[in-house]
Design brief:
The chain is α/β, with parallel strands linked by helices. It has a single domain, classed as UDP-N-acetylmuramoyl-L-alanine:D-glutamate ligase, CATH 3.40.1190.20. It starts with 6 loop residues before the first strand and ends in an 8-residue tail after the last helix.
Length: about 325
């Protein structure tokens, strides 16, 4: 692929339509629902694009209004969209509700969706090979056997031509069992350069680490990834890589909507990686982007641009005039 058509980041996954009320309380009492879109991998792509890098999303949508909503919204965020339109399956949907202040629930309606029919043939030559980084997650692997095979195929293609492979374990218990996840994800780990996991997800794959995130990260790295990053909630994050063990602090957060925290963390990290930053700065930026994102409603709407990121990284009380 020539330089003009190359892209910094390509993500692969399912983006769904989202219905969410604007109030706290049982969903059945909602009088209106807002309509938007969301998906782990597209959130990462939007986050990286807003921070100044070119980004693309590849996936499958239904031949319906929700599918057109997905592609229109992603193009509106200046992503390159490689979407297969599936006339035989609908675009996936999920509902959000907030039954109590400080709590969130997600209800999936994605069984048999167009996104779950993702197959290797949906990725024509150049989509993967023309990227600096390719990113996807365990959510995509969980959608179906075909989607899992597509993930492995895409990552193997990327690695074969020297494209950096990024993968977030992103285990969703509503999509598959721990046992199925463990079996499939261990097939993916050797194909990965940058591996992201929560402390719980790291423990799922490395139970012998006894819940120690650093031990789990070292064990995962022995199977192929150059760098393993583990997030630990309020305890911050750590990475194990060529620079050794690095720790990242969790900034103070005024949390409004925690959904999207992990994906925004990955977006911040990958933008710093693309900028050539050292590991400590990658972790700082990742945490700052996540903190900004969760301070607003929505999975990705609050993702910062460069100006907002600089403000988030500035000392408390800084005033820009």
């Amino acid at each position: 692929m020539n330089r003009q058509s190359a892209v910094d980041l390509t993500t692969l996954g399912e983006t769904l339509a989202v219905l969410a009320p604007d109030h706290i309380g049982p969903l059945r009492h909602a009088r209106s629902l807002g309509l938007t879109v969301a998906g782990s991998e597209s959130t990462v792509a939007i986050g990286v694009r807003r921070l100044g890098h070119s980004a693309a999303w590849a996936g499958r949508v239904g031949d319906d209004e929700l599918g057109r909503l997905v592609t229109d919204r992603l193009r509106g965020e200046d992503l390159r969209v490689h979407a297969v339109t599936d006339a035989s399956a609908p675009t996936g949907l999920f509902l959000k509700d907030q039954p109590l202040a400080g709590s969130r629930r997600v209800h999936y309606y994605r069984g048999g969706s167009a996104g779950s029919h993702l197959c290797p043939e949906d990725l024509p030559p150049g989509v993967v090979e023309g990227s600096r980084v390719v990113h996807t997650s365990g959510i995509t692997s969980a959608l179906s056997d075909a989607a899992a095979r597509t993930v492995r195929t895409a990552l193997a293609r990327a690695r074969s031509v020297g494209v950096t492979v990024s993968f977030d374990l992103n285990h969703r218990t509503r999509l598959w069992s721990d046992e199925r996840a463990r079996t499939e994800l261990w097939q993916v780990v050797p194909l990965v350069d940058l591996l992201f996991a929560s402390d719980d997800e790291a423990a799922l794959l490395v139970p012998e680490a006894g819940g120690d995130p650093e031990r789990a990260a070292h064990a995962l790295r022995e199977h192929g990834p150059e760098t393993v990053v583990v997030t630990m909630g309020a305890a911050g994050s750590l990475s194990v890589g060529p620079e050794g063990v690095r720790l990242g602090a969790a900034p103070a957060v005024l949390e409004v909507d925690p959904i999207g925290a992990g994906d925004s963390f990955v977006a911040g990290y990958l933008s710093a990686f693309l900028d050539g930053c050292a590991e400590p700065e990658r972790l700082v930026r990742a945490s700052a982007v996540a903190a900004v994102c969760v301070a607003t409603q929505g999975d990705w709407e609050g993702l910062p641009d460069r100006a907002v990121l600089e403000l988030a990284l500035a000392p408390a009380g800084t005033v820009t005039r």
